[in-house]
Write a structure and sequence with these properties.
The complex is a heterotrimer.
Chain A: E1 4-13, E2 16-26, E3 31-35, H1 42-50, E4 57-62, E5 65-66, E6 77-80, H2 92-102, H3 107-120, H4 136-148, E7 154-158, H5 166-183, E8 186-191, H6 194-200, E9 203-208, E10 211-216, H7 218-223, H8 228-233, E11 240-248, E12 253-257, E13 263-265, E14 281-286, E15 291-292, E16 301-312, E17 316-323, E18 326-333, E19 343-348, E20 354-357
Parallel strand pairs in A: 3-8, 3-9, 6-7, 7-8
Antiparallel strand pairs in A: 1-2, 1-4, 4-5, 9-10, 11-12, 11-14, 12-13, 14-20, 15-19, 16-17, 16-19, 17-18
Helix pairs in contact in A: 2-4
Chain B: H1 7-50, H2 54-59, H3 72-79, H4 91-121, H5 127-135, H6 143-156, H7 162-186, H8 191-198, H9 203-211, H10 216-231, H11 235-240, H12 248-257, H13 265-298
Helix pairs in contact in B: 1-13, 3-13, 4-7, 4-10, 7-10, 10-13, 12-13
Chain C: H1 2-36, H2 52-59, H3 61-92, H4 99-107, H5 114-124, H6 131-137, H7 154-179, H8 183-191, H9 196-207, H10 209-224, H11 228-233, H12 245-255, H13 259-290
């Protein structure tokens, strides 16, 4: 039994198709992140799971029950909002037990839940305060507490960290991760921040234009992105995509970049369907962190490129190289001295290569 | 909370909410339309009554539709019957109001704009107090200034004149216009002014070339507000003028109150409509600015 | 010289506004205050007389009736305007078709002058040909509605007309207030299982405290200043049963030639307004400074 199942879900706002035949499944205890740029439909999908938006086509199942037409309060879900949406005229205690009161829970049960959750989240000293008297981090904990207290089947988070400053964001991210480890709740979490997604999620569903681009574990998404969108979206800086052609001879396949003569051998690459390599034009994908300044592996390809620009980030530097008039970025430790406008020896880790069809932009 | 609801009770939940929703919807519209009738009713009565003859009025009720659209009472309300002395009609007083409103709106708006400009873009020590000082003028009951104003107008030789009313309305409009412009300009980033100063523009140039062109929304709100306030005024009009220099609301009241032999309710209604048309037209055409003026004037800061 | 001019230009430009308000508002109010302590009759006298006029004022039956009427009117005016305003605002907030049209209907009354309003309602409440006749012709033979000429009930006609004029304004304030609430709060409440009624009663309306405050202040202010409406609707009558402070002030000054007494009544009105406005401005300023 899947805790959450989305089946052929479509949603339009007027004539705009916001979600196109979405299919998704989550097991209990999973932390699914819906990741994507603004407008991709992730928040809409979350609202639909919550029951705050209507569906045009398709179904939503929670624990195998079709909840597509059921009110939010009967779906056994709880939600944490970007602005926390704490009720301003109520104090923390009233905020947290509001849902339980609406469900006509017994007084004893309410007290019990409140005590449990408020001490767990360490907000028990704040119970009499009003939201306006709380700091950002405290408000978030109260918002989480409000959700926890109802013991829902699924927790929904709508970009809860976006309103925090950078430092607090990192702190709260860890708190959320710890919470999930301790409670093993099922979570659906929306964000546009890929670092957040990668660190929090057990599964990530990347969305763009209303379609799920890839739904996998963070490792697979990072190492084997299924199309150029995912390759570009994940990673900072994003994966280098070099245009060129595949050359096939008897047993060997190699990549030749546009405007270059260099043949880069493609060995041990897990092709989807080796025999169906119709279009020879491809994108050769390699992440900046997989370009080294000294040889780390046997199969690393040595190559000489001219360095054009170097950006110092503190713990590392990002160097822009010119590869046949295409820019590629590499990440080096900041202790390495790179001379600009000179050719530098680089080593490309060929085990970390991704290839994409230049027309369909899909991984091949 | 358990998650063990049977699928049949989910169905029941679905249906129940559907029926309550439909009922609530109908109730909603019913109440809204009920109140709408309360608001529309007097307007309807005014129009309908003005189009009837006195016979019809005596025989029918408030709601009865006129047998024919008789505009005679409108003509009487506007231009009178041509009797001579004792025949009051609205036309001259309508124009009095126009002559009074236009300058008063212009001056009060202009002064308020400049004041709002200074108070937000050329801060000086104590400017918050100056604003408060001016703001207070919005709230005073005018009864507290009627007596000295009457004397002052007399001393200046402009009592019972349109010019006198222009002065009064301009002065007492300043607190409101300043409030509107100050609140508007405060939300305009001061970087705009700073950039202009770096470019070498002076005080007046910045105002006329930079702020004024983007002030259209607030100018519209202010002009509509002032126009409505001044056109609808009765207190100042009746206290500081009488007879020929009176503005339209005073004239309307006089016409309605004059108890010459027979009460002509249709003429009364026609007069009321004529007196109310200018502001009504403004409201219909620029309604949302009107409302913006009302709600923003009430919310300070 | 020019530099001095330039440096002080802002202050120079402010000077006319400040000067005019200083003279015509503060100066005049002080003048009226001064006169209220003299026993001026037709013309102002400048010898201080003491609080004689105030004693006379509060001993005057007409003034006491005026104050009594003001209290009754203000209470009813406030209650009805706010209740109707809130109901209309909440109902209109429900994604109604023709919301724009309805809003226009509820608000157009604010565009009319009190004289026009008074004239219209005077006709509607006409004891023989108005509402009374309407109901009689509909079959309610013994229906009477002569409130307008009834000493006891006339004050309530002013409430009816006044609420008709101003309730829309309160609605606009509350509607703006309700709409300024971020919808995540309503979403959270829905997930928490709150019914629509609970959402408004327990969550949204409590958040409207500043709007309540603002509405009260403005309505009380309108009420204290009531003059035009009363002149047009009842002229303070029948007799003096609907007289109000503003009417009293004008009549004693210009018809009864008792300037000192009139000044005293004006100052009473001034103090009543100050008592409401000053705390309001104070708390608004504190809120603005806290931001």
């Amino acid at each position: 039994m899947k805790t959450l199942k989305i089946e052929e879900l479509s949603k339009n706002f007027g004539s705009t198709e916001v979600l196109k035949k979405i299919n998704l499944e989550i097991d209990e205890g999973n932390f699914l992140v819906l990741l994507g740029p603004s407008g991709c439909g992730k928040s809409t999908l979350l609202n639909i799971i919550a029951g705050l938006e209507t569906i045009n086509e398709g179904n939503v199942y929670i624990d195998d029950y079709n909840v597509s037409k059921v009110e939010p309060k009967d779906r056994n879900i709880a939600m944490v909002f970007q602005s926390y949406a704490l009720y301003p005229s109520m104090n923390v205690k009233e905020n947290m037990i509001f849902g339980l009161k609406q469900a006509k829970t017994s007084k004893e049960k309410i007290e019990e839940q409140l005590k449990k959750v408020s001490s767990f989240l360490q907000v028990d000293s704040l119970l009499e305060r009003k939201p306006s008297q709380l700091s950002g981090g405290q408000r978030q904990r109260v918002a989480i507490g409000r959700a926890l207290v109802r013991e829902p089947r699924i927790f929904l988070f709508d970009e809860p960290l976006s309103n925090l400053d950078a430092k607090l964001r990192v702190e709260m991210r860890r708190e959320i991760k710890k919470l999930h480890q301790q409670l093993k709740t099922t979570v659906v979490y929306v964000t546009h921040d890929q670092t957040e997604a990668m660190s929090l999620g057990t599964k990530i569903a990347i969305m763009n234009h209303g379609v799920i681009q890839q739904n996998d574990t963070p490792e697979i998404i990072y190492n084997k992105p299924s199309n150029t969108f995912v390759a570009d979206f994940i990673g900072s800086p994003s994966m280098n995509l070099i245009k060129g052609n595949l050359k096939q001879s008897a047993d060997n396949i190699s990549f030749i970049a546009e405007g270059s003569n260099l043949e880069i051998p493609i060995k041990h690459y897990d092709f989807k369907n080796k025999s169906e390599l119709s279009n020879n034009e491809v994108y050769f994908g390699i992440r900046p962190e997989h370009i080294y300044f000294k040889k780390l592996n046997e199969d690393d390809l040595e190559i000489n490129l001219r360095a054009d620009l170097s950006e110092y980030i503190g713990h590392e530097q990002i160097v822009t190289f010119n590869f046949s008039n295409q820019e590629i970025l590499a990440k080096f430790p900041s202790t390495i001295n790179v001379e600009l406008n000179k050719e530098t020896k680089l080593y490309i880790d060929l085990t970390q290569v991704s290839l994409f069809d230049s027309k369909s932009e899909e991984r091949i | 909370m358990q998650g063990s609801l049977q699928s049949s009770s989910y169905k029941q939940l679905e249906q129940k909410s559907k029926y309550t929703n439909i009922f609530l919807r109908w109730f909603l519209y019913f109440v809204l339309i009920l109140f709408a009738s309360y608001f529309i009713f007097p307007l309807y009565v005014m129009i309908v009554t003005s189009l009837k003859t006195m016979e019809e009025i005596r025989q029918g009720t408030l709601l009865t539709w006129p047998s024919a659209l008789n505009f005679e009472s409108w003509g009487v309300a506007w231009g009178g019957r041509g009797y001579g002395a004792g025949d009051t009609y609205l036309k001259p007083y309508f124009w009095n109001s126009i002559k009074m409103v236009v300058p008063a709106v212009f001056f009060s708006t202009f002064i308020g704009a400049m004041a709002g400009y200074v108070l937000t873009k050329w801060r000086f020590k104590g400017d918050k107090w100056v604003f408060l000082f001016l703001l207070f003028g919005c709230f005073i009951p005018y009864q507290a200034i009627l007596l000295p104003m009457a004397r002052t107008l007399g001393v200046l030789g402009i009592s019972n004149s349109i010019i006198g009313l222009v002065l009064v309305h301009t002065v007492y409009g300043i607190p409101f216009t300043t409030l509107f412009f100050r609140n508007f300009y405060i939300s305009i980033p001061s970087e705009l002014v700073k950039a202009a100063r770096i470019d070498g523009a002076g005080f007046f140039k910045i105002f006329f070339k930079i702020l004024l062109p983007i002030s259209t929304p607030i100018i519209v709100v202010t002009v509509i507000w002032q126009f409505t306030q001044i056109w609808n005024d009765f207190l100042f009009g009746s206290t500081f003028s009488f007879g020929e220099a009176a503005p339209i609301q005073v004239a309307l009241n006089n016409m309605v109150l004059s108890s010459t032999s027979v009460k002509e309710y249709n003429v009364d209604m026609a007069s009321a409509i004529i007196a109310g048309i200018p502001t009504l037209i403004v409201y219909v055409l620029a309604g949302k600015y009107f409302i913006r003026g009302l709600t923003s004037g009430a919310v300070k800061g | 010289m020019f530099r001095w001019l330039e440096k002080n230009l802002p202050k120079i430009v402010m000077a006319p506004a400040v000067g005019l308000i200083g003279w015509f508002v503060y100066g005049f109010v002080l003048w009226t205050l001064y006169i209220s302590f003299t026993n001026s009759k037709i013309l102002p006298k400048y010898e201080l007389w003491g609080v004689g006029e105030y004693t006379k004022l509060w001993a005057s039956r007409k003034w006491l009736i005026a104050v009594d009427n003001l209290l009754i009117f203000t209470a009813l005016f406030l209650i009805f305007c706010v209740v109707i305003g809130i109901i209309l605002a909440i109902f209109l907030d429900q994604k109604i078709r023709a919301e724009g049209l309805l809003r226009t209907i509820y608000l157009y009354t604010m565009a009319l002058s009190f004289i026009v309003t008074g004239t219209a309602w005077k006709w509607i409440l006409n004891p023989t040909l108005g509402i009374q006749k309407l109901f009689i012709d509909w079959g309610f033979e013994n229906f009477t509605f002569d409130w307008l000429v009834n000493r006891e009930m006339a004050i309530y006609t002013i409430v009816i007309a006044g609420v008709w004029q101003s309730a829309g304004f309160v609605m606009a304030l509350f509607l703006a207030g309700l709409r300024s609430v971020e919808d995540e709060i309503v979403k959270a409440a829905k997930i928490d299982g709150a019914s629509l009624f609970t959402v408004y009663w327990k969550i949204l309306l409590p958040m409207m405290r500043p709007v309540f405050f603002t509405s009260f202040v403005i309505l009380v202010h309108i009420s204290i200043k009531s003059y035009d409406l009363i002149v047009a609707l009842t002229q303070g009558g029948p007799g003096i049963s609907t007289t109000m402070p503003a009417l009293y002030m004008t009549q004693t000054a210009f018809h009864k030639s008792q300037v000192g007494l009139s000044a005293a009544s004006a100052m009473m009105m001034f103090m009543a307004v100050a008592a409401v406005i000053i705390p309001y401005l104070y708390s608004e300023l504190r809120r603005e400074n806290a931001r």
